[in-house]
Amino acid sequence: MIGRIAGRVDYRAEDHVLIDVRGVGYLVYCNDRTLQSLPGVGEHTALYTDLLVREDNLQLFGFTSLVEKEWHRLLMSVQGVGAKASMAILGALGPDGVGRTIALGDWNSVKAAKGIGPKTAQRVVNELKDKAPQVMAMGASPVPVIDRGSDEVIEATVPAAPVAGSGAQAEALSALSNLGYAPGEAAGAVAQAAGDAPEAETSALIRAALKLLAPKG
């Protein structure tokens, strides 16, 4: 299993990129957000990858964080969602957006992705709602980039979404879980709070989520 690629960008296309790893070129399919985050031709980058094995074809799909990769694997576990549909959903919403959308049960946002119909969107939300808290709690795990041109390891990142926001949501979700809230309701509250204030820090997210979880009346 090829789980990570690090090398020089050889060329970029509409839906994939060719990465040269010490003379071997790997063609990696990416969603729109990931492609936009990658550096230009000739520069070094790194991607987490998932290998799709078919009888007549092998395809590598690339992601800028372990959270994004995990969502891809979970989305593909839903009936009717293949690699193309998963990449469309991630490209439209981003990994954080997918987590918020599923936690809130907002299947209309999933339906906004290209090629996703209402039945498939509802199935995605219904089948993954119990798994959303676990993935959201992973936070952001950006890929370290290795500069092979100078034979020097450089710790850099290529995040698909703001790392602070992802980490804050993960920490807020963990805090609410420690307070005794069920994973599903905690994830929903954090998702709603993060949607209202995407750049909020952990403490602000916790306060906002607690207000949403407070008994009404």
TrEMBL record:
Helix-hairpin-helix DNA-binding motif class domain: residues covered: 73-92, 108-127
Stretches for region Flexible linker: 153-165
UniProt-recorded Gene Ontology molecular function terms: ATP binding; four-way junction DNA binding; four-way junction helicase activity; hydrolase activity
Keyword annotations: ATP-binding, Cytoplasm, DNA damage, DNA recombination, DNA repair, DNA-binding, Helicase, Hydrolase, Nucleotide-binding
Keyword Amino-acid biosynthesis: no
InterPro entries named among the record's database cross-references: DNA_helicase_Holl-junc_RuvA_I (IPR013849), Hlx-hairpin-Hlx_DNA-bd_motif (IPR003583), NA-bd_OB-fold (IPR012340), RuvA (IPR000085), RuvA_2-like (IPR010994), RuvA_C (IPR011114), RuvA_C_sf (IPR036267)
Pfam families, alphabetized: HHH_5, RuvA_C, RuvA_N
Record region (Domain III): 166-217
Start and end residues of each stretch annotated as Domain I: 1-64
Keyword DNA repair listed: yes
Annotated Gene Ontology cellular component terms: cytoplasm; Holliday junction helicase complex; Holliday junction resolvase complex
Gene Ontology biological process terms, A to Z: DNA recombination; DNA repair
Subcellular location: Cytoplasm
Record-linked Gene3D superfamilies: 5' to 3' exonuclease, C-terminal subdomain, DNA helicase RuvA subunit, C-terminal domain, Nucleic acid-binding proteins
Role noted for this protein: The RuvA-RuvB-RuvC complex processes Holliday junction (HJ) DNA during genetic recombination and DNA repair, while the RuvA-RuvB complex plays an important role in the rescue of blocked DNA replication forks via replication fork reversal (RFR). RuvA specifically binds to HJ cruciform DNA, conferring on it an open structure. The RuvB hexamer acts as an ATP-dependent pump, pulling dsDNA into and through the RuvAB complex. HJ branch migration allows RuvC to scan DNA until it finds its consensus sequence, where it cleaves and resolves the cruciform DNA.
Comment, domains: Has three domains with a flexible linker between the domains II and III and assumes an 'L' shape. Domain III is highly mobile and contacts RuvB.
Assembly and binders: Homotetramer. Forms an RuvA(8)-RuvB(12)-Holliday junction (HJ) complex. HJ DNA is sandwiched between 2 RuvA tetramers; dsDNA enters through RuvA and exits via RuvB. An RuvB hexamer assembles on each DNA strand where it exits the tetramer. Each RuvB hexamer is contacted by two RuvA subunits (via domain III) on 2 adjacent RuvB subunits; this complex drives branch migration. In the full resolvosome a probable DNA-RuvA(4)-RuvB(12)-RuvC(2) complex forms which resolves the HJ.
Family: Belongs to the RuvA family.
Full protein name: Holliday junction branch migration complex subunit RuvA
Organism for this UniProt entry: Roseovarius aestuarii
